[in-house]
Amino acid sequence: MILTLSTTATPATDLGYLLHKHPDRVHTFELSFGLARVFYPEASAERCTAALMLEVDPIALVRGRGVSETQYVNDRPYAASSFLSVAISRVFGSALGGRCKDRPELAATAIPLEIEIAALPCRGGERFLRQLFEPLGYEVDVRALPLDETFPDWGPSAYFDVKLTATVRLADALTHLYVLVPVLDQEKHYWLGPEEVEKLLRHGEGWLAAHPAREAIAQRYLRFRPLIASALARLVPEEESPTEDPESRDGAEEKIEAPFGLHEQRLARVAEVLRQSGARRVLDLGCGEGKLLRRLLADRQFEEIVGLDAGSRSLEIAAERLNLDRMPPGQRGRIRLLHGALTYRDRRLAGYDAAALVEVIEHLDPPRLAAFERVVFEFARPGWVVVTTPNAEYNALFPSLPAGRFRHADHRFEWSRAEFASWAERVAGRFGYRVELSPLGPEDPEHGALSQMAVFERVATHEPAGGVEPTSAAAR
Fold first, then answer.
1. Going by fewer Cβ within 10 Å, which terminus of the chain is more open, N or C?
2. Which class for 431: exposed (0-12), middle (13-18), buried (19 or more C-beta within 10 A)?
3. What is the value of pTM for the model shown?
4. Among 85-94, 399-408, 426-435, which range has the highest average pLDDT?
5. CA 306 – CA 337 distance, rounded (Å)
6. Strand order in 34-43's β-sheet?
């Protein structure tokens, strides 16, 4: 099996410092299951590629275990698997840990990386592979390998040649590979115990908790229910409920606001703003069960509609309520549902005319707002962005809402009018937008409107403050 890491950072041969492996030598390492070799097929100032090649001895894997000869025949010498993860840890241990003694500033710098993995098994197919890597900011190119090239009619195998491209810290890229390659393979060659939970949490620090597929990753990485439960209990804060029904979740806030009919007013207002913007390709970020999507589909102005949500159950409900499986082909071709998080750079979101975030930002932890801002306003960078959020001042008028309580248990904050205005103006100034604020719903002379909306319009000639900064896969 072979893994290659390529960069075009200048000078590209700095990759040798990061990996602690000199480009002029072939480096050989003895492992318990075979040999690992590191060499550089190309090493110039413009482009440098390091290759990690594993020679797995299938007989050595089972020698002395009283097995038959047929068990010597398997895919382990050829398929990327947990052996590759072990080799990354043993051979690139310092790089994996983000250490570079001679050039410490390099280890902290995001660089353009192109990662190629040959014969990567994926139990779950290309879609699952993309669900793992695209939310982390990678552009994913996949080639399905046939079962037999001589007989193409036999169809594709479960193996893929994969190329991942991103601007990312090398340590982050190696960490993602270390965790996710065994997840794709769904096999490990060693015993799984409680120490595997610690390993997953250690290498998943900073990205796994917010990954939209974190539960699937934990389940496949750990396999056994007690280990999975232990990991998820520590990954998900106590106030979150990963099994919560999205219908009851959305209904709690609507129940408080029901006497005012605000939810329908809000959706109608957002849809009208999107229509007036002239947008034809729109994003509904945090689409939930798809109520705004249904409105947008009814308007033929919108030629391409994408709904994104971090909750797989929410997307299932949206698909059911929109009747996607029974939708006419022409209508079905206008809409896509994506699984993803708003705190990770996602190339799938780039290039759209407009984006809507209806009652979404208050569900984000405040420390993650900076990442969210860059994902939406710097990387996706639609022409228009419409954001709605509750007005915390109006909460004093709800008799059923105790002082200091939010309208929904999953809200991480609720802003006053001044706080929302301050945030919106700062974001607009930093990323090259102009913004207009307006009230939503009934207004009180003292406490303002029930909800509030910001409409951001991109200034075409304006570059974001400081330009587009290099970033790791997780927008920091």
1. C
2. buried
3. 0.54
4. 426-435
5. 6
6. 27-31, 34-43, 48-56, 2-7, 111-121, 156-168, 139-146
